[in-house]
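Aggregate trends can hide what the representation actually does to any particular protein. The sequence in question and its structure tokens are set out directly beneath this paragraph.
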Amino acid sequence: MNREWDFLLPMPGRPGPGTWVIGPCWFFCGHQVTAVVWIGAVTTVGANAPLYACGGCLDQLHAMAWDFTESGWKARYRRPRTSFGRRLRRLADAYQPTKGNDGG
């Protein structure tokens, strides 16, 4: 199967933040070609690349960010939104000192 679009940048749209263009999503949906928006860049040793996400993947990233933020709160007001959040909650619960045993 020829999937050369995997290596193409999204088509240019109007300049400015929040511009939706057609291109491959870099996240959870399996790199579908759809409407995507630039959300930042990734940098690794010797390389960098723009990151684009579709609407569904943006929703997932948003939920994961809130799960991460709320995982450190002592009073948890919400159930985790994602499997990532459920793992963070289990880790946070495992490392919380029990009453009378603060590790000191």
